[in-house]
Amino acid sequence: MNRPKTQANDLELQIPPARSILVALSGGPDSTLLLHLLLRESKSLKFKLFAAHINYRLRHKDSDADEAFCRDLCMKLGVKLFVKKLPIGAMAKSNLQENARRIRYEYFDELCEKHDIDFIATGHNRDDNVETVIMNLGRGAGTFGLGGINPREGNIIRPLLNYSRTEIESYLKANKIKFRTDGSNLETNYLRNRVRLQLLPQMASLFGEALPGNIHRAARLLSEQEHALRQIADELIATDARTTAGGKIVLDLDKFHLYYPMLQRLVIALCYERMHGSLKDFDFGTSERVLEVASGSTDLVDLKAGIFAERCDRVMYIYRRSPSTRPVAIKRTGKTKAAAFWAEFSFARIPRASVNRDDLRSGQNLRVYFDAAKLRGQLTVRSVREGDKFSPLGMSGHRKLSDLLIDAKVDRPLRDEIPIVLCDDKIVWVVGLAICEDYKVTDTTKTVVQLEVKPYRGI
Questions:
Q1: C-alpha distance from residue 47 to each of 21, 105, 121, 392 (Å)
Q2: Which of 105, 136, 209, 442 could form a disulfide with 145 if both were Cys (CB 3.0 to 4.6 A apart)?
Q3: What residues in the chain have per-residue pLDDT under 70?
Q4: How far is CA 142 from CA 65, 138, 177, 257, 388, in A?
Q5: pTM for the full model?
């Protein structure tokens, strides 16, 4: 079997050391070639090869024919094939491609975990990369998007990324390797197809046939620069930022303003990625809005996907807003974990005489004391809610809990991380700040309840 003529050794270089590889097999030209080439390489590099096919049932008989082709191919080659066949109508019509991608990779990840497979190999080629770069450019992508598709991303490898679609099909034809053709690739109802079928041919007519290769090379250079800059940005986040117990990232703005503008944008992008899990939907406009917060032009911006950037004095928070936590009952024996706060509460009854008088007057510790005779109701812990009122120690009447938090200089993004302890429906302890006047220990108190909270992953 002849190798593709262009950069023949690249295939071997793009396969990391592995015990096993799973080929994402559609039956199309790219994945079919990938299966043949990886099977050949598996003999010399000594890794086990698997394949996986998903029948989405979107093209009716054609989808079933694709599945039959993949089964027959793998049987002839002696490759173990896994097949997932979706029920008819299971695919939501909205965001079809995104849903298909999600289902595909969830299935591949399941197979990798179940069968201890090291890598997933996909058939992305050079033209796929060029299309992706153009689409990302049109959407306003920043540095990350213009780097295109990575040859390796986690446990996903793309060994054919340097080969054009023409080279792949020529190779298949020369070696008489059959494959399936997906007619939907010729339809123009998807943006990628319009870029492939309409835009790129027009661009090539203006700039010459070398254009796709030039775009691919430029994307590779940008990708290499991105990886180097990403390491620098990661180091800046590690040294100049901190993460709260609730997962919010806090950037020191005095240090942030000293970064080069490009590094500022990269730090913002990486913080967004940590919150969102990916850089999907992140574009130049997103970084611009965060920079407005950093400069003080505005205090708060909604970055979509439930992610916010907020400035508080000389720090900037990038965070996902936490939903209001459901109350957790605090047991009167042993310990109670409140997972939402990464905290563990303990309850104990102790004699009045065993408590230091100075400790009784403070609610700012993580260990506080109450009159046991007054604290008879159900104890629960939850997060702050709008409209909460509280009677702090030493004060008659109530005040808004939000006012107490403002006076205590608790930054707004951190307020939902403060545990609020209630006795029945009444707030008795704002952890770390104050206890309630109505439940304090007095000279007539005989038995004291000691409540203590300890972090079990930092608080």
A1: 7, 21, 13, 67
A2: 136
A3: 1-14, 89, 91-94, 361-364, 457-459
A4: 41, 11, 40, 20, 43
A5: 0.76
CA atoms within 13 A on the CB side of 450: 17
Pairing of strands 379-382, 328-329: antiparallel
Q: What is the pLDDT of residues 81-137, one digit of tens each?
A: 999 998 876 766 667 778 888 899 999 999 999 999 999 999 999 999 999 999 988
| Amino acid at the residue 271 | C
Of 451, 441, 448, give the one whose Cα is nearest residue 347: 451
Tell me 206's DSSP state: H
Burial class (CB in 10 A: 0-12, 13-18, 19+), 352: middle
- Cβ-based burial of 279 (10 A; exposed 0-12, middle 13-18, buried ≥19): middle
Domains recognised in the chain with CATH numbers: 10-123+159-207 (3.40.50.620), 220-320 (1.20.59.20), 328-455 (3.50.40.10)
For the chain, what is the total number of helices (H) and then of strands (E)? 15, 22
